[in-house]
Structure formats: C-alpha cells, structure tokens
Amino acid sequence: xxxxxxxxxxxxxxxxxxxxxxxxxxxxxxxxxxxxxxxxxxxxxxxxxxxxxxxxxxxxxxxxxxxxxxxxxxxxxxxxxxxxxxxxxxxxxxxxxxxxxxxxxxxxxxxxxxxxxxxxxxxxxxxxxxxxxxxxxxxxxxxxxxxxxxxxxxxxxxxxxxxxxxxxxxxxxxxxxxxxxxxxxxxxxxxxxxxxxxxxxxxxxxxxxxxxxxxxxxxxxxxxxxxxxxxxxxxxxxxxxxxxxxxxxxxxxxxxxxxxxxxxxxxxxxxxxxxxxxxxxxxxxxxxxxxxxxxxxxxxxxxxxxxxxxxxxxxxxxxxxxxxxxxxxxxxxxxxxxxxxxxxxxxxxxxxxxx
Length: 355
Prior knowledge:
Layout: H1 5-24, E1 27-40, E2 50-55, E3 62-72, E4 75-86, E5 91-93, E6 100-107, E7 110-118, H2 120-125, E8 156-167, E9 170-177, E10 190-199, E11 202-212, E12 224-236, E13 239-251, E14 260-271, E15 277-289, E16 300-309, E17 314-324, E18 343-354
Antiparallel strand pairs: 1-2, 1-3, 1-18, 3-4, 4-5, 4-6, 6-7, 7-8, 8-9, 9-10, 10-11, 11-12, 12-13, 13-14, 14-15, 15-16, 16-17, 17-18
C-alpha cells in the first residue's frame, strides 16, 4: 500500500524518537489528557446556563518530549519541548511548544535552562494550591476573568534564563526574562525569585515577581507589576492543609492612570482515606483595592473535588464550585471565561489519563 507523505513523516518522527530513546534511554514522550463535561449557570448576559465539553478539569492537557544526556562528572544536559492540547476540539493550544521549549544543564549546583518555560513562581506556588492550578476550578494563578484585572502572577516567560536548586530542606529558584528592547535592558524585562524550607511535615515558602512594561515617552516611566506570595502547607496522616497570601500591585507608567492593587488569599484541605480516593476542599478570596467605594467585587470561590484513581495513570473526578461577588459586581468561576452575574455555580465531571 502506498504511504502518503504525512504518514511517512509521522513514521520517521516515531522512529527517530524511539531510536534515540533506545540508544540513550533518556528520551521520553509523555502527556496528560484531561477531558470532561461542565455545567455552569449565568454563562450569558441573559443568565442562561451552559453545558459543554471541556479540556482540562484538574489539569491542562498537554504532550511533550523531554530527555537528559549524561556528560560525566555529575553533569547532565537537559531539554524539554511541551505543547498544550484542547481535548474538546483536538486543536493545538497556542504555539506548538507554548508551554515549554528549553535546553540546559543540571548538576550538584542545581539546574539552569534557557528558552521558554514556566516561571520560578509557577514552579513554587503549584505545590501550595490545594487544587493544583486546576483550570476548573482554581484562582491560584489568577482570579476570575470577569472584571478589569485578574490580579494574578505570570505562569510562563519567553526569552527565559531560569535557575532551580535544592539543598537539603532548602529549595530556591530565580529567573530573568530579557525584554529585548532597544530602549534599554529594563524595558519589558521580567524577573522573579523563590525560596522554600521544609520543617518535618510542614513547608513554608515566599516568592517575588517583577514585570516591567516599556517606558512611556510622555512621563519617562513604565508600568511596573510586582507580585509576592507567602504560604505554607502541612501534612499529617490522611490530611493535608494549605494556606497562601498573594499581594498584587501594578504601578501605572502613564499619567492620570490609577494603580491596580489586590490581595488574594486561599486555603484548603485534602483528605485521602485510602490509596485511590482523594477529597479536596478549597476557598479563594480576592480583596480588590484602589477602586471607588462600593465598586470592589471582592469575589470568593468555594470548591469541592472528589478524585478516584482507576489505576496509577487514570483518574475520574467530579468538581463543584460556587463564586460570589459583593456590591452587585460581576464574577465567575473561570480564569478564562467571564461570568454575567454577581454569582456563578458550576460542576464538572471528567477523566484524566497520563502517559
């Protein structure tokens, strides 16, 4: 049977990856596929409910290729290419390797990578979110899409140089993303730093992030966005607890433009009565600041999730959430889709498989 050019290309790629993995035993094709169904009310201006197939209930669906090469003396070369998948349509989620595309070195000193990757803050804070940055439902990376700002932190940078190191109970990280502007190295530059320490069953952490805009000619200033976190988690027997505070501030570079400020707090608890069952509850709250009286939404979201492991690689999950805003302001559950009332409730049923 005659093979098409596309078929031949796919076979060549598979052979190349398989051959590399066989020759070096350090190249891995991996992925996570998470798909489900959500029903949410107040999904339109007329207050209608919406039932839809969703991609990513607990985690964003993705696929990738990663690997290492032993260079001797405890030094390794590392690489990672990772892209997102929209499971409801099969479409590519953004650029081909929007999630990660880097190479680097790893040794006793830690790991340094260069390219496109998650920020140091993302790498740290994900361990302090009871919902694990779930697309449905978590406000740990940002607040709801409804409103003038999400009051969140940056999850990934282009043009990135990132360091991560673990030394006993101490874990540190730092990153710098070049702005690549001819007006100066500070324009569009981004940077961050993280630290955590383990005290027996408890962990504490702190993070800092700074994102610059470009200089505004009329004022000589630039937008300056700073975000910091402090948080802790604690595990005892079948229970795990989390508590985090995030402060967000955007200082405007343009004249007659108000700064943007908010503080987000969240906490949660997970109960794992056996090896296959996990029940997690979480509360997220955004305290909106620097707005006119009685116009702050100050939304709160309550989440409950049941997760059951069918195997080591496959889970089913059910999540329910309710969000409510003050002063008649709009809010919603989603980080990506706006809500159309001062409250919204939603429920998702899904399945996740990892390979």
